[in-house]
Structure formats: C-alpha cells, structure tokens
Write a structure and sequence with these properties.
Length: 454
C-alpha cells in the first residue's frame, strides 16, 4: 500500500493492507508515563483517534488526543465516491478510471454517477439531462443582486455570493431530511451554477446577461451564456464544447480536498445545501486550491519567454517563488488529470487558431526543466490539473479571472455527492476539531488594566 492510500477495502469489504496473513490486525501502544498498554484495532488501515482517549495518567485526565494540522494523516470520513492512489497517479470515480470517463462519458453522465453511485441507463440519463436542463434559469431577482457588485468585482466573489443567495430563494431546502428537497437541491445546483458563473462574467464585462438555451448541451449552453452577442442562435463549435465538457469531467470530484472538506464541515452543521456549497466555492477561490489555474497564467505571463525559465526556477529553489500548477498533497507522481489535459491543449489551439501562444512554450519549457531538476523530482513535484487547464481556457477566449469559476461549475457535482454521502453516514456528527491551547490562563484583568495606567 502506498503512503497515500488510507483504509483501502476490497469489493468484499476486506482490508487489503496486510490482512490475510494470520497476524492480528491491531496495534499495541504503551504509555510510558503509566506503563500501561492498550491494544487498538486497525480498521481499514486506520486507528480510531478517540480510542487513544483511554490513555490517561489519572481518572480526571482528558486522555490522549492526536495532533494533525491540515489533516496530513487523518481520514475524516468513509467515502465510496472517489479513489486516488497518489503514488501510482490513479484517479477513479465510483471505480471507473478517469481516462475511461473522459473518453466515453459526458460531464452530466459523470455527475449522475457521482451523485447516484451507478451509471445511468438510457432513460435515467435522459431524465437527468432533462431535469438539469429545465432548471438552468435563475430567479430574476438574482440579476438585481448582481447589479450591486462593482464593475470590476472578481467573478469568483460574485459566484460565492450568488450561490449562497440561492438558499434564500429555496427556503425549503433547509429540510435536509426530506429526500425530495435533497434531490431538487442537487439538480438545481448543478443546473444553475453555469448560469450564475456566466452572469458574473457578463457583469464584469458590462454586457447584458444571456439566458440559458435549452437546445444546447451543458458545456455548449455555458459557452453561449458567456459569448453570445447579436446572433439569434449561438452555435458552439462542437470540438470546443467537447473539450470544455472533458475539462468539466476532470474537475468533477477529487475526494477530500480543501473545498470538499469545507462543504462537509459546514454541511455537518445541517445548514441548507446552498450555504454548504458556498463554503466550497470560498475554499476553491484560494490560490493554493482552485485559484491556482489563474495564478499559473499570471506566472507564465510574468516569466514572459522561455529564455527566462532558468532564472525563474532558481527563484523557486531559493524560496522566492512558488511554481504554481506544480505539486499536490496526494499525487506524488504525475497528476493523471494533467496528462489528459495536456493532450487537449494542442487540439484546442488548432481549432481556435491560437497555436504559437508563447505562454504554451513557456509552460512546456518550465515542465521540461522542472522534471529534469533534482529539487523538484526529489520533492515529487509534478504538474497538477491546473498547470495546463488555464492555457485551454485562454484559448477558448475565457479571461483569467473566470478560470476558478469554471472549476467550480463541475466541482459542484462532487460537492453535492459528498454532501449527500455525509448526510447518510450514521457516523456523521457536527465537525468540531480539538485544539492545543497555547495562550495565557487565569490572568487578572483589573491588575493588568492598572498596570497599563487605565
Ligand atoms: N513550488 C515550489 N516548491 C513546492 C511547491 C511548488 N509548487 N509545492 C511544494 N513545494 C515544496 C515545499 O516548499 C516543500 O519543500 P521543503 O520540503 O523544502 O519544505 C515540499 O515541496 C513539500 O511541499 P508541501 O508544502 O509540504 O506540500 P503540501 O502538500 O502542503 O502542498 C500544494 C500541496 C498543492 C498546496 C503545493 O504543492 C502548492 O502550493 N502548489 C502550488 C499551487 C497549486 O498548483 N495548487 C493546485 C493544486 S491541484 C488543484 C487543486 O487542489 O485545486
């Protein structure tokens, strides 16, 4: 088992890591403060952190806790949605490899798979597609809400606010115990996210909003809402719509990343799904997460030309720069999503005539040199999904500020699938980490005020 795999079970529910050789699946820990030992069961490759509480120095002792900032070695839930083997560069949704999904599925089919757990049959896919298509419109009041933003507001900030605002339009979504409310929230969120994203973009351009066109498919409709001008009917280039749909598949879910963990943590308070997903959008905004695709393009533009790549990499090695689009908490091998995206860059540039984009040359040179450099290889830093995605978005004519917004559209299906799974998990409780308190205790306010002359 690789370092990154936690709690792998096979299809029969058996542990695959080390079981079956007759040895006990337990760990014995001795507390040298008391000399007492406890034997803890290993369940699915993990220890229950709460089991350590038995280790006390006296009956009033709280018991041992674990300390794990940034959850580097803590599984926070059990999940059957997405499997990643970071060492081998494997990504699977509900057991299907990402490469096969990108080649043979559409984004809406993958969204169905994530949310429902199984592939749809023809009727189920038709119904799902119809329902999503019929819910793409947003309440007219949302346009007025958007008008409150300044002309240069970042579209990700607008998306964050408008997704949260949806909860005020669907107050019944608070009934998270009602299966129909949950189902409708899933459909509405997946359906309306492209509309909110496109409206945010049109607002930032000072252009009129374009309503959804239900004759178009999911990606084509989004392109229409972004780009339609005076033509009566917007006809997306099918090759570009397909490339965008593939990007949507690649971004649909990625197990317990920062934004998904945020959706689960906020959702565990039993808030409505729109508010929980708004938390996910906020987490995604950050440059170390979904904001990296925008940061990559800024970095490539700043480098400017292939001749300046060595200097830039020296800056990274000296700690003055960060190589955006490189490195990943889980992948310690080439991110399989980056491999798939890279294949699409040339295709898209060919269609858009954007071949010869000097930033692509800079990206290729950066990747080549970094993969040949001991600093990066020894730290297992490889290109991640964001390294090449921005180049495709740029070729599609999408401005940089929209890149993370486009990431949020497909990730919504992952957030929803994880939120639904969390609600059905009998072990779910409100997320509430512990802390190690490092501050003062028992200070005397009046004495200190006196000392300050107050
Ligand atoms: N450039 C330069 N050095 C790096 C980078 C990088 N992009 N990433 C990690 N390192 C170094 C880091 O300084 C550390 O070095 P040392 O051992 O000398 O202290 C070592 O590699 C281990 O890194 P880490 O900071 O412990 O890794 P992490 O798991 O905490 O961080 C990461 C993961 C994705 C936040 C980080 O690699 C990073 O900041 N990458 C750039 C931002 C980026 O591309 N984010 C997108 C991630 S994929 C899509 C998504 O999640 O949305």
């Amino acid at each position: 088992m690789s370092d990154e795999q936690v709690g792998v079970v096979d299809a029969t529910g058996q542990q695959t890591n080390g079981s079956g050789d007759g040895r006990p699946q337990t760990v014995t820990i001795t507390d040298n403060r008391t000399g007492e030992s406890i034997e803890l069961p290993i369940e699915e490759g993990t220890l229950r952190a709460t089991a350590l509480r038995q280790m006390k120095t006296n009956p009033d002792d709280f018991g041992l806790m674990t300390y794990d900032p940034a959850y580097l070695n803590t599984a926070s839930c059990r999940s059957a949605i997405t499997y990643i083997d970071g060492a081998a560069g494997v990504l699977q949704h509900r057991g299907y490899p990402i490469e096969q999904l990108c080649e043979h599925s559409s984004y809406l089919e993958v969204a169905y798979l994530l949310v429902h757990g199984e592939l749809p049959n023809n009727d189920q896919l038709a119904t799902w597609t119809h329902e999503i298509t019929m819910h793409t419109f947003v309440h007219e009041n949302l346009k007025e809400f958007l008008e409150g933003f300044r002309y240069d507001a970042h579209p990700m900030g607008m998306l964050l606010a408008t997704v949260g605002a949806l909860s005020t339009f669907y107050p019944d979504s608070k009934n998270i115990g009602d299966p129909e409310e949950r189902r409708m929230a899933a459909i509405r969120l997946i359906a309306k996210m492209p509309t909110l994203a496109a409206f945010a973009y049109r607002h930032s351009q000072g252009m009129p909003y374009v309503y959804p066109d239900n004759d178009l498919d999911y990606a084509g409709n989004f392109m229409g809402m972004l780009f339609k001008m005076t033509e009566t009917k917007y006809e997306p280039d099918p090759r570009l719509a397909k490339a965008l749909d593939t990007l949507f598949i690649l971004h649909a879910d990625h197990e317990q990343n920062c934004s998904t963990a945020a959706v689960r943590a906020v959702g565990s308070s039993q808030v409505d799904p729109y508010s929980a997903v708004a938390a996910g959008v906020a987490a995604l905004y950050g440059p170390l997460h979904g904001g990296a695709n925008e940061a990559v393009l800024q970095m490539l533009a700043r480098i400017g030309g292939t001749d300046r790549v060595p200097d830039f990499l020296n800056g990274v090695k000296n700690g003055k720069e960060r190589l955006m689009g490189f490195g990943h908490r889980v992948y310690k091998n080439y991110d399989p999503r980056a491999r798939i995206i890279k294949k699409h860059v040339d295709e898209v540039l060919e269609v858009t005539g954007g071949g010869g984009n000097p930033l692509l040359d800079v990206a290729v040179e950066l990747e080549k040199r970094a993969l040949d450099d001991e600093y990066f290889t020894s730290r297992k830093l490889y290109p991640n999904v964001d390294f090449y995605s921005g180049l495709i978005y740029e070729a599609l004519g999408i401005p940089r500020a929209m890149f993370t917004v486009i990431f949020a559209i497909p990730r919504t299906s992952g957030w929803i699938a994880q939120w639904l799974e969390m609600l059905d998990d009998p072990e779910t409780k409100i997320a509430r980490p512990r802390q190690i308190y490092t501050g003062h205790r028992d200070r005397d306010l009046t004495a200190d005020l006196r000392a300050l002359g107050r």
